[in-house]
Each structure stands twice: as structure tokens, then as C-alpha cells.
Amino acid sequence: MAGVNPYIQKGPAPKATQPFKVTFVDEATGQSTEVAVDPATFPLGHIGLEGSVLDIADGAGIEINHSCGGVCACSTCHVRIEKGGASCSRATENEEDELDKAPDLSPESRLACQCVPNGTQDLIVLIPKWNRNEVKETPH
């Protein structure tokens, strides 16, 4: 599901045109994973806005909770852009409204489904330790 919510206006989010790196840091485990993103070949367009931090994480097999499916209708994909935030799309009013519902906000807080880097800087993305869905549904 791509990041489309028919009830909100989509903000401008220019996609990256050059390769860059995203380092995901899992606050719960202390592990970091570096992902090389080449917009020409990296699989994008599956979850959240195309090219979003959530879309990149999903394409790299990195789990970020996203209860609403990446459509800016909850705050579960809250992350912190520790480095490279200036290269990301600006938060819309709708994103800021959803962020208000998230715990432990900081000036670097973003919804991973809405934050689209333009590729001019490498990113460091902190996945907060509380951002874990410990309940997994399994088919019977």
C-alpha cells in the first residue's frame, strides 16, 4: 500500500535523483544498519510516500511499526532524523497533527511514512525503542 490518504492533502516531496545512504539505528538493540539507496535501482513505492524513510526501510527489510499502513493516519512510524534532516521533505500540517500523538517528541521527530529524503545528504534515522509491535498476528 502506497502512502495515500484521501482525507489529507499530500505535501511536496521531491524524490532523490542521486545515490545516498541511510543508517538506521535501532535504539532498543543499539544495532545500526546502513542502506545504500540508488533511486534508479532501489525497490521503492511499496509503503508510505514513494521514497519515504518507511519505504526505504521496507525495501531493505528493516522493521518500523506502521499500524495505518503508511498513510499518515497514526503516529506509530515516528522516528528521529538524527542527521541529514535538511535534505528531507518538510512536514505537512497533517503530519505534525499525527506527530502530536506520538510519545517522546523531539525537533528531529518525523513520521517515517511521510519523510522523503531528496538524496543530497546521507541520513541517520533513529528508530525509538518504544516503536515495536510486540504482538504478531498469526493465521490459525
Overview of the molecule:
The chain has 140 residues and is an alpha+beta fold. Helix content is 10%, strand content 19%. It starts with 19 loop residues before the first strand and ends in a 13-residue tail after the last strand. Strand 1 (20-26) and strand 2 form a beta hairpin. A 5-stranded mixed sheet has the order 2-1-5-3-4.
Quick gist of this model?
The chain is of the alpha+beta class.
The coarse silhouette is globular
Kindly name the structural category: alpha+beta
Biggest sheet details: 5 strands, mixed
Distance between the termini: 24 Å
Oligomer, anyone?
Answer: single chain
Radius of gyration: 14 Å
The H/E string reads EEHEHEE
List the total number of helices.
Answer: 2
Overall strand count: 5
Low-pLDDT segments, ≥5 res: 134-138
- Taking all residues together, what is the mean pLDDT? 87
Strand order, sheet with most strands: 2-1-5-3-4
| Content of β-strand | 15-25%
Helix-residue proportion: 10-25%
Write the layout of secondary structure elements.
Blueprint: E1 20-26, E2 32-37, H1 53-59, E3 78-83, H2 93-99, E4 109-111, E5 123-127
Parallel strand pairs: 1-5
Antiparallel strand pairs: 1-2, 3-4, 3-5
Q: Keyphrases for this structure?
A:
2 helices; 140 residues; 5 strands; five-stranded mixed beta sheet; globular; alpha+beta
